[in-house]
Each structure stands twice: as structure tokens, then as C-alpha cells.
Design a protein that fits this description.
Mean pLDDT: 83
Order of helices and strands: EHEHE
Number of strands: 3
Low-confidence stretches: none
Strand order of the largest sheet: 2-1-3
Radius of gyration: 14 Å
Shape: globular
Largest sheet: 3 strands, parallel
């Protein structure tokens, strides 16, 4: 099995890091764009300590993808 590669586009703007992330996707990296994901704020309930966050958002899916990846590339703008 090959390496699981994940690109995380951290830019709040659609065009800021789009070219780099697009090229990485074309090279076979899986891509996650943070501005397109839905994250609920933590309410401090500590349920995560038992491994079960009560929020049904994209965070659990992103964590699963991060754990499965052998390589993670964070693409972030410099202002």
C-alpha cells in the first residue's frame, strides 16, 4: 500500500493557496480545505476524553484522515 498523503489548505481565502493545493491534489494528495469544513466550538464538556465528541461536525472526519495519513502538508498563506 502506498503512502496516504493529505494536503490541508488553511487559507481563509479561496484564491490565496489554491494553486499550491491544486497541484498537490493533481499529484495524488488528498485535499482538505478548512474554510469549507464545519467545526463547532468546544463547549468544555470533556466527552472527548472518552473518545466521543458530542458535536456532529467535520472535525471527527478530519482527525480520522490525519491519523490515516503518512504525510501531511499544511498550505497556509503568509501575510
Amino acid at each position: 500500500m502506498g503512502k496516504e498523503c493529505l494536503v490541508i489548505d488553511c487559507s481563509p481565502r479561496a484564491v490565496s493557496c489554491a494553486e499550491i493545493a491544486r497541484r498537490a491534489s493533481e499529484a495524488g494528495f488528498e485535499r482538505a480545505t478548512l474554510r469549507e469544513l464545519d467545526f463547532a466550538p468546544c463547549d468544555g464538556c470533556a466527552a472527548c476524553k472518552s473518545g466521543c465528541c458530542p458535536h456532529e461536525d467535520d472535525a471527527a472526519r478530519l482527525w480520522r484522515r490525519l491519523r490515516e495519513a503518512s504525510v501531511v502538508l499544511f498550505v497556509t498563506p503568509l501575510y
